[in-house]
Write a structure and sequence with these properties.
The chain has seven helices and seven strands. It is α+β, with helices and mostly antiparallel strands and 227 residues long. The chain is globular, with a radius of gyration of 20 Å.
């Protein structure tokens, strides 16, 4: 039985409440199915973080200044090696608390152009092409190239943080704003290297309804007359 088949089998045996519990970042154990507790929140932006001694690399913005995707992949691999070792040690002691797992909320592939955001040092800078190259390299380093992931990279904040906090054309801290089509396609989506198909449909005089698909994720937004 493959991992995917085993996962589907376990999910099919869960109650609705148990399924909901596994959607939390701090997923509790389901003892009757032999599923241990797991905390999905761990950090590895520039080194294995918040769980004892580990190698600390330069901040992401500094590593981006190397313009060296091969070296960044090696850095990601080193972080994953330390993370895997620490994970094995923690689980051997039954410690499954926060910052002890193998799912790293890294890299941050936001496009950094507005210093008011305050978290630009976590990114690879303002260029979508460079961010795409470095983001992929870091992810490959963390996850490895084998049949089993060495660790799991969770590319952070591609759409949500960028358009709530980074894009100067959006009101900061408000979720009621939508990105212009060209900004979304040329900046944020390109940074993740995801092909996007756009389908514009006519709407009323207040604007146009925009529906588009990113990979297997269907999203809807709205473009104003000003855009």
């Amino acid at each position: 039985m493959t991992f995917k088949e085993r996962a589907k089998e376990l999910v099919s045996k869960m109650t609705i409440g148990e399924k909901m519990s596994q959607m939390r970042y701090d997923s509790p154990a389901i003892e009757r199915l032999g599923i241990p507790a797991y905390n999905w929140w761990n950090e590895a932006l520039h080194g294995y973080a918040r769980s004892g001694t580990a190698t600390v690399f330069p901040q992401a913005i500094g590593m981006a200044a190397m313009f060296d995707d091969e070296l960044l992949e090696r850095i990601g691999d080193a972080i994953a090696t330390e993370g895997r070792a620490k994970y094995n040690a923690h689980t051997a002691e039954g410690d499954r608390t926060q910052y002890k797992g193998l799912t790293f909320w890294s890299p941050n592939i936001n496009i950094f152009r507005d210093p008011r955001w305050g978290r630009g040092h976590e990114t690879y800078g303002e260029d979508p092409y460079l961010t795409a190259r470095l983001g992929k390299a870091f992810i490959n380093g963390l996850q490895g190239h084998g049949d089993t992931l060495k660790a799991a990279a969770c590319a952070a904040q591609l759409l949500d943080w960028y358009y709530l906090y980074e894009d100067p054309d959006c009101a900061r801290g408000s979720a009621a704003n939508f990105a212009a089509v060209n900004d979304l396609s040329e900046d944020a989506v390109h940074a993740n290297g995801i092909p996007v198909d756009f389908d514009m449909e006519d709407d009323d005089e207040e604007g146009e309804e925009l529906s588009f698909e990113i990979g297997s994720i269907e999203l809807e937004s709205a473009a104003s007359d000003e855009e």
